[in-house]
Amino acid sequence: IAAAVEIWAQGPTALPPPRQPRTPVLPVEGERNVLITSALPYVNNVPHLGNIIGCVLSADTFARYCRLRGWNTLFVCGTDEYGTATETRALEEGLSPQELCDRYHAVHADVYAWFRISFDHFGRTTTPQQTRIAQDIFQRLLARGFLLQDTLEQLRCESCGRYLADRFVEGTCPFCGYAEARGDQCDKCGKLINAVELKNPQCKICRGTPVVTPTQHLFLDLPKLEGRLEAWLERTWAAGDWTANARHITRTWLRDGLKPRCITRDLTWGTPVPLDGFRDKVFYVWFDAPIGYLSITANYTEQWERWWKNPQQ
């Protein structure tokens, strides 16, 4: 405390000289290098104060602090643009998903610029780099035996000629009887729903009656990783960097046993699956979206791996 008071009394003269900005910002040997991201905002709406306060503003505050400390800091973010919510909103507005994303990406960028959020780069997930990196990660998982195939029962609308993602189905909730439940959740009772469980299901696009049809999908074989994951968690928990809430949620997942996780969807809007028999499908957005942090950095600099594959610096 005494040292802090002394430095404060000296005023700006006690500050280290400001860093000279570099473009691009890359890790520097022998310096403290800090990579900062914030949760990628979804692109199908106009951001509001809650979006900014919830994640963007806190990351910006920390980035400014790091720069004032003289640390070599890179702050990236961008819009999350794949998924059925984008398709649904595009249908409502009479646009293609790409047109909708182009519109709202510009809105997001303008809003954050108005708030003077100090991103070094604000990108998006609908880029060639996203496709390349996501498909490369997929191929590595496939080669190492961490993927498996299985059949899912899904609702298919014959009138539209397509399988219906969760948000393209409405019907009666099997739990509370609410007549306008979505294919993923009931907004009245809050319970999660599998779309095939809905009573009186309707296609949200044409209001036709879909039928249950089997379809092949790819799954991440999480049970095969469970032992290695538990060993890693024990080491990182011992370091003391996890919150009590994060530990509790993680232990609950492990207590119940990890299950295979589907990573593909019968959609056209998304990153294509590069495997014969699945080329008419795309990656499920929860497999694809986290890779956006890497691909956005790759759009900022071709040397993105120096940030993401460089634990020594």
TrEMBL record:
Q: Does the keyword Nucleotide-binding apply?
A: yes
Key words, A-Z: Aminoacyl-tRNA synthetase, ATP-binding, Ligase, Nucleotide-binding, Protein biosynthesis
Q: Which reactions does this protein catalyse?
A: tRNA(Met) + L-methionine + ATP = L-methionyl-tRNA(Met) + AMP + diphosphate
Protein name as it appears in the record: Methionine--tRNA ligase, cytoplasmic
- SUPFAM superfamilies found in the cross-reference section: Methionyl-tRNA synthetase (MetRS), Zn-domain (SSF57770), Nucleotidylyl transferase (SSF52374)
Q: Which GO terms describe its cellular component?
A: aminoacyl-tRNA synthetase multienzyme complex; cytosol
Report the domain of life of the source organism: Eukaryota
InterPro entries in the cross-refs = aa-tRNA-synth_I_CS (IPR001412), Met-tRNA_ligase_1 (IPR023458), Met-tRNA_synth (IPR014758), Methionyl/Leucyl_tRNA_Synth (IPR015413), MetRS_core (IPR033911), MetRS_Zn (IPR029038), Rossmann-like_a/b/a_fold (IPR014729)
Cross-referenced NCBIfam families, in alphabetical order? metG
**One biological process GO term for this chain?**
methionyl-tRNA aminoacylation
- In the UniProt record, does the keyword ATP-binding occur? yes
The record's annotation in PROSITE patterns points to:
AA_TRNA_LIGASE_I (PS00178)
What organism, scientifically named, is this protein from?
Answer: Tichodroma muraria
